[in-house]
Structures are given as structure tokens and as C-alpha cells.
Write a structure and sequence with these properties.
- By secondary structure, the protein is mainly alpha-helical.
- The protein has one domain.
- It is built from four helices and two strands.
- It has a two-stranded parallel sheet.
- The model has no long low-confidence stretch (mean pLDDT 97).
Length: 66
Amino acid sequence: MDKIRVPKSVFQGLEAIRQSGATNMLDYRAVVQLANMLNNRDTVSWLMDHKHEYVEGVMYGIEPEE
């Protein structure tokens, strides 16, 4: 399976959450809450519209679009 490609701003938001270690990235709700707390609207919007892709991305990898 290929990595999930996301806009750069979304990738940066997800990467900030991952690097913080504040939650397990499989905890979708916590990731959305943290993105909200960080005021990363692009990430929140993408997560709300692409839950299935996010879960696949956690399993197979997420990379920024070029």
C-alpha cells in the first residue's frame, strides 16, 4: 500500500502532534483535539473530512504533497 499524501500544512500539523508524544497517533479523537488545541485549522479540517485516509496513513505512512 502507498503512503497517504496530504497537504504540507496538514503533514506539519500531524508531525508536530506525533513528535510531542502527547497521544498515540491511533487515537483519532485525541489527535483531532490536539490539532484544535494547537489551532491548526488545516489539520483539523483534513482530519474531519478524511478519517479513513488518516487511519490508513497511520498504518502505512503519511507524506506531504509536493
